[in-house]
Design brief:
467 residues, alpha+beta, Beta-Lactamase, Phosphatase 2c, domain 1, 2 domains, five-stranded antiparallel sheet, 9 helices, disordered N terminus, carbon monoxide binding, nitric oxide binding, magnesium, magnesium ion binding
Amino acid sequence: MEHGQGAQRNGQWSPPVPPAAPDAGAGRPPDTATAGRTAEAAEFTDITDIAEQLRSLTRAQQRLHSLLDAVLAISRELELPVVLHRIVTTAMELVDARYGALGVLDESGERLEQFIPVGLSEEEEAALAGVELPRGHGLLGHLIHNPEPLRVEHIGAHPNSSGFPPGHPPMRTLLGVAISVRGEIYGDLYLTDRRDGLPFDAQDENIVVALAGAAGVAIENARLFEQVRSGAESFQRLLLPRLPDLHPFSGSAVYRPATAPGQLGGDWYDVILLPDRSCAAVIGDVVGHDLMAAASMAQTRNMLRALLYDRRTPPSLVLSQLDRTLHAITESPVTTACLARIEPEGDGWCLHWSTAGHLPPLVITPDRKAIYLHADPGVPLGVDTRQPRPDHTHPLPGGTTVVFFTDGLVEHPRRPLDVCMDELAEIAVAHAGEPPDKLCRILADNHTSDGHDDLAVLVLRTPDAPA
């Protein structure tokens, strides 16, 4: 039976069956707009994923660059306290931590002998005044005995947590990493509380572990630097004399090595009492900062003693004789020097001196007036033995202070020399009443130079009157 025709069933008439409605999609092409929107959504999702991946890659690159910059910044430092502090601040910057600290282990490796906290406000530091620094208990002790990276989301809930002392700021999250030097645990780096409030994640851990590796190298370099500097200073001091009893004069000398690693300075000094009751003093500077300069300094000083002690010879002639002798028997480098004799004269004293390209002495009178004895400096030793050397004299009342010094005390590459020397004179006048040994230390501690060269200071003070 076709659609639209009736049918007779059991003697009854049935209405015709209406034709079925045609399929909406049958017989015509698919809806291209809907398909397009689906494809666009999928494409947008892909682009979003790619953009997020690119952002993640950019963040990773930025972190890597920050880590490299941090490693370079740490490796530039050579002073151990500065290195340790820089490690903490750098780690805090890399993971955006609010607080950080570095605990240095003692020789036993069981306790902390040094704890360097960073990030505390003035109010927080004041609240902790008088509280003993951590020694390695609780979570800190856990990291000491288990030197694996440690991430804690809730410090208070950790089974090894021992709480905080009164006044300590609240801290919730922790990232702890051990720092090794030559395969031995040197200490532990602690970071707490990311500023965004989230716990530290695996990326934070990885970057701090990488920093800790570089930190170990930087710490070892700083320790080696300290050893080299200490050895150089000890060697230098062995070459310099210990001043004898200068009675009736009083005097003192200070030597400070250069700050650059491995540099042996050529600065030197000497003071001796002569048989004629005069006091002879010399200060000088051998050009160079190596073993040869130090050896030449010792040789020059010893030779000068032999030329000076048993004869009353003007300082200029002694320097000329020294120059000729050094030229004849050694390959001594260029050396500057100031040689002086303080001799009795009437009721007072007279300074008789000659220089070989050296800075002038500074005189502080009993009434605290400063005078630089500027005069013809002559040529340094080792330049031209034929050049004449002038002598100079200056009266010294009893109680006068004479300061001899090397250029390492006053030379600064970015400041005029006369300005630095004026500042030195002001410091000397302000402390002229101090004993020579204390005055020496004050001048050395408050030098007006950049500190990159070694320095020597020699202070002599005349008695009230010749005996």
